[in-house]
Every structure is written in structure tokens, then in C-alpha cells.
Write a structure and sequence with these properties.
Strand 3, helix 3 and strand 4 form a beta-alpha-beta unit. 34% of the residues lie in helices and 28% in strands. By secondary structure, it is of the alpha/beta class. The chain folds into two domains: 166 residues, no CATH class; 156 residues, no CATH class. The chain is built from nine helices and 13 strands.
């Protein structure tokens, strides 16, 4: 017999996701306004925003010209929510949403997505929002979060005895999983072909491929050679860069994530020069470079026949005995005892 769900699994996807998210919020508020206050501020604080949802009860507090017997008050606020499921980076539509604010004391535009907002899109929104605030004498704040962060913050708000709310968030997490709304990048390995560049990648703690190969965010990168993942590292920075042979200059096209340090920039120059001289690799049209703290040797053997055809993604969460708190070297040791069947 199927389980009864708190959250429907039908209707148009984006509307369904928004409705279920609002239902989650409202159920927590009805259960405990104080827990709701802690929950919503948990993911607003990263944007420097604090929301006071408290209802205050006051007695004989002096007003303008009189002292009323009692007073009940609450800060007026409005949060306008935009949920995006497919990585859209629209501006025109969300600018129209800002007109829905009126005279609230606190005005917040909350953007929710599967993935964290990109730096470029965030800066674009802030630029337009600052102009809107200046033109309309308003003070709208912007915050962004993910469905994964919502689930994490909700769980952290609860106590052991909050059985009903625990069942609620468990069902919401199940709904998010079914709709592919939870970004599990922190348990995924990007398995990449290396061949002749394996030792160079290992030595320089780097990997690169053409920009046009697409991009999925993963916490780990695995270097594949001779029917096995031979090394694994945790990615700390990803940048798109090109090299001009005529001037011997490097152009940083975009930092996908992380911080490009001076040491990484020196490594980038060295890797480009070495690859050009040793393998005649061209960098004029741009390559995507992944930096890791350190590669750890492993031997995660590919059990199925044939070699690896292009990049593959493996979810460590599906590997027996894997635990999220494992360090990279512990993961490397674990994988030495495992096999995989990705074609």
C-alpha cells in the first residue's frame, strides 16, 4: 500500500513546487511561530537580512499623547517568492514582481532554485534592484536559497520530539527528490578521461577540458585511465580561461565557482605552456579548468565491458559504506574495494 503524502505529486510542475513550498512554510508557522522565525532567518542571514515575525503584547505603553491599556503589534513585512526549476536567469519577469510590494516595513524578494544562484546572475539582479529601489524610493532586499538549504534549515529548527514536523519535512524531501530539486553535487564525482595527461593532472592538482562540453557542479573529480578511476580530488575552484599565443597572455573568461588565487594563476600558466609544448593543445578558444586541493590515488575499477565514453557522473551516496563526513583520502581508500558498472 502506498504512503499517504502531505505534498501532492501532480499538477503543473512549477506551480506544484511553489504550492508545496508554501504549504511547508505555512504548516511550520501554524505549528510554532517561533520555529518559523528561526527557520526563515536561517537562510535569509546569508544575504544579510533578518526578519522579525514576532507578535508583541504590550501593556500601558505610552503612545502619542496617551497611554493605552494594551497593545498587540507586529512588524509589517512581505516576502515575494520566485521559484525556478530549470536554471532560468530572467530579469524582466522578476522586475515585474517588485511592483507587488506596497508600504511594508520589510520587503524581501526571495529566489528559490535547485542550484545556488550564479555570481553573474546575482550581480545582475542586484544592479536592477538597486535602480528600482532608487527610482521608487523603496528598500527591497534580495535573498536566494535552494530547496536543499530549505530542507536543511527546516530540520535544524526541529527538536527530537517534533514528530509531526519531522514527518512533514521527510515527505517534502521525498517530493524534492522525485522532482529532482535537490542538488546532490556534494556526493557526486565527475569521472573524466585523462590518458596521457594523467600524471600532469596529478602533479598540478588540476584538470581541464573544452568549455563547450557542458558543466554540472560536483564536489569531486575522478581521473579515469585504463578501466578505473585512478585518482580522486575535491574541487575548490573552476574557471574558464583562454590563451593568446601571439602575446602569451591568459584571459580569465569567467570564474564558475571558488576563488582563483595567485598560486592557481601560476599553475594555470604552467599547465597551459606545458600542454602546448608537450601535446600541442590549443587554448585560444577557451578551456574549463578544475582545481583540487590534492589528488588521492585510488583504483575504482569499471566492471562493465569497454572503455569510458566521455564524462560520467557517479553518486557516492549509492556506494555501499560511503558516509558524507568522509575525507577525500578515506573515500579514495573505500573505492579501492569497490567496482562500478556505468557504461
Amino acid at each position: 500500500m502506498s504512503n499517504i503524502h502531505y505534498f501532492p505529486r501532480y499538477s503543473q510542475k512549477e506551480n506544484m513546487v511553489t504550492n508545496n513550498t508554501m504549504l511547508l512554510f505555512s504548516r511550520l508557522y501554524n505549528n510554532s511561530p517561533e520555529k518559523f522565525r528561526r527557520f526563515i532567518n536561517a537562510f535569509l542571514e546569508e544575504s544579510g537580512i533578518e526578519l522579525d515575525t514576532t507578535v508583541r503584547f504590550k501593556q500601558q505603553e505610552k503612545g502619542k499623547g496617551s497611554i493605552p491599556d494594551g497593545m498587540i503589534e507586529q512588524e509589517s513585512f512581505k516576502i515575494i517568492i520566485e521559484t525556478k526549476l530549470y536554471g532560468q536567469e530572467e530579469i524582466k519577469q522578476i522586475k515585474n514582481h517588485w511592483n507587488a510590494f506596497e508600504n511594508e516595513d520589510k520587503q524581501i524578494f526571495l529566489w528559490i532554485n535547485k542550484n545556488s544562484i550564479s555570481k553573474k546572475y546575482y550581480e545582475n539582479i542586484i544592479s536592477h534592484l538597486n535602480k528600482f529601489n532608487d527610482d521608487n524610493d523603496s528598500n527591497i532586499g534580495f535573498a536566494s536559497t535552494t530547496f536543499k538549504d530549505i530542507c536543511t534549515c527546516f530540520n535544524e529548527t526541529l527538536q527530537e520530539y517534533d514528530f509531526e514536523m519531522k514527518a512533514l519535512i521527510e515527505d517534502f524531501e521525498g517530493f524534492c527528490d522525485e522532482c529532482d530539486l535537490i542538488d546532490n553535487a556534494d556526493t557526486k564525482i565527475r569521472v573524466v578521461l585523462t590518458g596521457q595527461t594523467f600524471e600532469d593532472n596529478l602533479k598540478n592538482n588540476i584538470y581541464y577540458n573544452p568549455i563547450d562540453r557542458g558543466f554540472k557542479n560536483t564536489k569531486y573529480i575522478g581521473l579515469y585511465k585504463n578501466k578505473a578511476v585512478r585518482a580522486i580530488g575535491e574541487t575548490i575552484c573552476c574557471v574558464d580561461a583562454s590563451h593568446d599565443n601571439s602575446t602569451d597572455s591568459i584571459k580569465i573568461i569567467e570564474v564558475q565557482y571558488g576563488i582563483l588565487s595567485d598560486h592557481m594563476m601560476d599553475t594555470l600558466k604552467k599547465v597551459i605552456h606545458d600542454a602546448r609544448d608537450k601535446y600541442a593543445h590549443a587554448f585560444n578558444e577557451g578551456q574549463r579548468f578544475f582545481f583540487v586541493n590534492e589528488y588521492f590515488i585510488t583504483e575504482y575499477a569499471k566492471k562493465s565491458k569497454g572503455g569510458l565514453m566521455g564524462t560520467r557522473y557517479i553518486d557516492l551516496g549509492e556506494v555501499e559504506d560511503f558516509k558524507k563526513e568522509m575525507t577525500v583520502d578515506e573515500i579514495a581508500e573505500l573505492l579501492k574495494t569497490k567496482e562500478w558498472n556505468v557504461g
